[in-house]
Amino acid sequence: MPSSSPFPRVTVLGLGVLGAQIALQTAAHGVDVTAYDVDDAALATGRGRLDTFAAEAAGEMPDAEAYRGAPERIRLVSDLAEAVREADLVIEAVPERLELKRDVWARVGAAAPEATVFATNSSSLLPSAIADATGRPDRFLALHFANHVWVNNTAEVMGTPQTDPAVADRVQAFAEAIGMIAIRLHKEQPGYVLNSLLIPFLGAAAELLVKGVADPATIDLTWRKATGAPAGPFQIYDVVGLRTAYAVASADPRSAVWAAHLKEHYLDQGKLGVESGEGFYRY
Question: Which of 180, 197, 248, 263 could bridge across to 175 with cysteines, CB 3.0–4.6 Å?
Answer without folding.
Answer: 180
